[in-house]
Amino acid sequence: MRREDRAVVGLLGFLHGAVHANLLAIPVFLNLPWRSEFQANSVVVGLLAATTYACFGFSSVPFGFLADRRSPTRLLMLSAGGIAVSLGSLGLSPNLPWLALSLAGLGLSSGIYHPTALAAISRSVEAQGAAMGWHGMGGSLGIALGPAFVAATLASGWPWRDAVAVLVLPPLVGLALLATRFPPVGTRPPAVVATPSRSLASVSFVRVLLVYFFAGIAYQGALSFLPLPRFLGGGLFAVALGLGAVGQVVAGTLADRRRPDRILTSLSLTAAVLLSLLAAFLGSAAFLVGGLAFGFVLFSLEALQNTLVTRTAPHESRGLAFGLSFFSVFGLGSIGAVLAGWLLDQGQPAAMFLVLSAAIASSGVIAYGIGATVEKT
User: Fold this and answer.
1) Could you give the CA distance from residue 265 to residue 270 in angstroms, rounded to a whole number?
2) H helix runs in the chain, sequence order
3) C-alpha separations of 6 from 1, 120, 130, 240 in Å
């Protein structure tokens, strides 16, 4: 990888980790200190989680559009600065409405990152596979370390506001690095990349959006409530996400295969089986094992899903394509957190896991054949 490419990927990998660390720490806060301090039941917890993730998805579309037309540096600075300000506001929240607005701000500013960064990498870095792998590893570290840090500090007696204050530091560091060290990256694709022109209105890309949507229902529904003490608790939730980080790296090595859709289908159905087993093993040691296995498999899906986006979207619309994908998984898929919260409030945890299982199985079935369709076009 060229020196200038390493500079781009290294900084974006750091920012990727900061984004995921904050987003995946939210379920730990929601299910541990915030339930009691803000008197939130499962429905309210689901709505707060959905607010964060829906705003994440909604902002991905307009900023994905801008990522196709503007240099990414200012967009990335807006994302890092917005995350820091939102976390600062979160730490000062005196009541539930303030908390909800702060979470909305966190989602909106975080949503800028992925379409901007992924489009920048796809257009400016020659070693695409290696770049996406290292960038994904940065996100994986954030997935593992953010919730682990929050769970550990809360368990040791830290006030939750102090934990939030520490989380403000990485995006501030990222903002400073963007302002001083980030090399200029243009919006036009590099000459070494040749991709046949395809429209985002294609059947293949619409199917990709459905893959993301149904996966988002399961992703948000499960992760919003697994930190509950009755399920995994904060500590084991962090371990499950750590295993998920490993799964993401493993899947990244498989994403360049000729038919990633087949691997995605197999892993999605595996995740569905694990969620069904969680419904059967509620309250047992087997539930804990199944929950950890589910964390590993769930995050292995991301690299494969992103590969389908790059195979079905033209280069000139890559930012918008990723924006629409993240809108589908987080914006529309946020219904999963609300639905899961409602089922828990009705005393139906087994039904919750079965519904989420059906959603992720649907995602896997829809994914099958997308790679073959693209290869023929």
Assistant:
1) 9
2) 3-31, 33-37, 42-67, 72-91, 96-111, 113-124, 128-155, 160-167, 169-180, 203-223, 233-254, 260-280, 285-312, 318-326, 335-345, 349-367, 370-376
3) 6, 13, 10, 30
pTM of the model: 0.83
The contacts of residue 123 (CB under 8 Å, 6+ apart) are 185, 186, 187, 188, 189, 190, 193, 315, 318
From residue 128, alpha-carbon distances to 172, 179, 192, 193, 310 in Å are: 28, 25, 11, 10, 11
Residue 376: exposed, middle, or buried by beta-carbon count in 10 A (0-12, 13-18, 19+)?
Answer: exposed
CA 142 to chain centre: 11
Structure tokens at 267: 């892993």
How far apart are alpha carbons 197 and 195 in whole angstroms?
Answer: 6
Nearest partner of 148 among 24, 298, 45, 291, judged by Cα: 24
User: Is the Cβ–Cβ distance between 258 and 347 less than 8 Å?
Assistant: no
For the chain, give the percent of residues with pLDDT over 70.
90
In whole angstroms, what is the distance from residue 248 CA to residue 255 CA? Answer: 10
Q: Give the lowest-confidence range in 213-217, 218-222, 283-287, 306-310.
A: 306-310
DSSP string across 339-355 = HHHHHHHTT-HHHHHHH
Task: At 4, list the tokens.
Answer: 């200038």
Residue 83 contacts residue 132 (beta carbons within 8 Å): no
Q: Is the pLDDT of residue 175 over 50?
A: yes
In angstroms, rounded to a whole number, what is the distance separating the alpha carbons of residues 231 and 254?
31
- 368 and 265 Cβ atoms separated by less than 8 Å: yes
In this structure, which topology does domain 3-188+198-376 adopt according to CATH? Growth Hormone; Chain: A; (1.20.1250)
Residue 59, C-beta contacts closer than 8 angstroms, at least 6 positions apart: 107, 108, 109, 110, 111, 112
Query: Residue 127 above 60 pLDDT?
Result: yes
Report the distance separating Cα 117 and Cα 305, nearest Å: 16
pLDDT range class, residue 193, cuts 50, 70, 90: very low
Q: What is the mean pLDDT of the chain?
A: 86
Angle at CA 22, nearest 5°, toward 53 and 338?
A: 25
Mutual angle of helices 160-167 and 72-91, in 10-degree steps: 170
